[in-house]
Write a structure and sequence with these properties.
The protein is an alpha+beta fold. The chain binds 2-acetamido-2-deoxy-beta-D-glucopyranose. Its main location: secreted.
């Protein structure tokens, strides 16, 4: 004789095994009974020792009292925090034993007809039984398809004309700003890592401008942008940064550091130099370019910003 009572500790079976088993048994019983509608099961009356055919109980209920020769099965509603998902002849409802983890949230609460179900919280996706954080797209790439509870973020390299300056799991590549349309001139073309840099500095040369005079600030800003966001190799960027930062900073930067990080550092260093001593930026910068052996860039800076 087979029975589906649950006694003692829960069986060490995967959670899907029991419902599947119940379903198989239910289908078998229905076929054997040859009836459409209510499912049945064989039951031996304890008093009369007689074999009976009892009705099963529908989902959300359990067998409170098996049928007798003259009374049908009594089904009882599952108590709170318990459920039965299928037609059954269980003597008690199953406990809602699914507990949502720290990185999960309730997708379906525990109800009389089904167990609690969890899904990964926003910002996480399910992988190999764990909820992992959606990966950010690094600078130069943008979100192509945002992560879902079941899938990681999908990134794409920013196509020409667009950029992404930050590491983010939500930001798409943004189009470069259009300097002409803004009434400005293009100082540095945009890359996949940074926006186009515009300037209103047109009244070159810087050399004839009084430090702090009208237009000087904007033109100094333009020089800084121009140098820091030049399209040059990390090696050259690093060389320039090391010359500008002085010997005390030599150990702080490794060549492994990303180019975008290095550009920001260089930009910050040049900004600091400008703020430290009004009007001294250009002379220091040109000296540093020579020392860092970047004659091509030195020439461009002179031509653009220092011409007499
Ligand atoms: C920028 O704007 C100008 C004028 O509005 C337009 O002619 C030009 O095509 C734009 N450039 C880009 C790259 O969108």
């Amino acid at each position: 004789m087979w029975t589906l009572e649950r006694r003692g500790p829960p069986p060490l079976t995967p959670p899907w095994a029991l419902p599947t088993l119940l379903l198989a048994l239910a289908a078998h019983t229905a076929a054997a009974a040859g009836t459409a509608g209510a499912l049945t099961y064989p039951w031996r009356d304890a008093e009369t020792r007689e074999w009976l055919v009892c009705n099963q109980c529908p989902p959300g209920t359990f067998v409170q009292r098996p049928c007798r020769r003259d009374t049908p099965t009594t089904c009882g509603a599952c108590p709170p925090r318990h459920y039965t998902q299928f037609w059954n002849y269980l003597e008690r409802c199953r406990y809602c034993n699914v507990i949502c983890g720290e990185r999960e949230e309730e997708a379906r609460p525990c109800e009389a007809t089904h167990n609690r179900a969890c899904r990964c919280r926003p910002g996480f996706f399910a992988h190999a039984g764990f909820c992992l954080e959606h990966a950010p797209c690094p600078p130069g790439t943008g979100v192509a398809v945002p992560g879902t509870p079941s899938q990681n973020t999908q990134c794409q390299p920013c196509p020409p004309g667009t950029f992404s300056a930050s590491s983010s799991s939500s930001e798409k590549c943004q189009p470069h700003r259009n300097c002409t349309a803004l009434g400005l001139s293009l100082n540095v073309p945009g890359s996949s890592f940074h926006d186009a840099l515009c300037t209103s500095c047109t009244s070159f040369p810087l050399s004839t401008m009084a430090p702090g005079g009208p237009g000087a600030e904007e033109c100094e800003r333009a020089v800084i942008d121009f140098v820091a966001f030049q399209d040059m190799s990390s090696k050259r960027l690093l060389r320039l940064w090391q010359v500008l930062a002085g010997p005390e900073a030599q150990g702080l930067v490794t060549p492994r550091e990303g180019r975008a990080d290095l550009q920001l550092k260089l930009w910050q260093r040049l900004t600091d130099l400008r703020d430290a001593q009004a009007g001294a930026l250009m002379a220091q910068l040109l000296r540093a370019l020579r020392e860092a052996r970047l004659p091509g860039l030195e020439r461009s800076v002179r031509t653009r910003f220092w011409a007499h």
